[in-house]
Amino acid sequence: RRQGRLLDVLTAMRPLAVMQLLQLAVGCAGFLAPPRAAPLAMTRRVASAHVQRRAPFVRQLAAMSSNTSPETPLRKLLGDLTFMGPMRYIVQTPTAILETVAEAESVSYKTLDDGSELATIKTDDASFEAHVKIGSLSEVKFESKDKGGRKLYFVRFVDTNGAPALTCLLHAEPGGEYDQSAIKFWEGLRESFGDSVSA
User: Fold this and answer.
1) What is the pLDDT of residue 65?
2) pTM for the model
3) Residue 149, class by beta-carbon neighbours within 10 Å (0-12 exposed, 13-18 middle, 19+ buried)?
């Protein structure tokens, strides 16, 4: 039972917090064994693997708290995207298309000099960042469609001209299969927020 309660506690923690806890445990173990530094990359991999194994339960916790936050619907949605798992982020202009796959872990906000608000969706190590000007958005839409024998799941950030400013696509696992808990979480968000969230 103690092990089960410990896993539940670790599940509710952010990946960085799990990594720090592991580093602390390694440091304490130094009193009982010869000093040996644990590589940061190793503790990060252990923390990441833990979160991946427990991802469905983490998404359940996020869904349970979906109606308890005092944040605006748009801020709540941005925060919920950090529980979605890997997503393909797509930005398209008339002359170029940029795509990357990332698993966002947090969202921060900043007021720019012109008074507009900037949201930054990012990983904890800042290896990935997506900046979105809140005031330049009109809505965020949930869309799905069938393509090539499988279903695609989108979260589209639409600007005030009605064009997609940023598209987030649920990313399939190796082999083309989706994490079923991620699909259920996406469907739960669509049911909770509706097909569109006004900016």
Assistant:
1) 44
2) 0.65
3) exposed
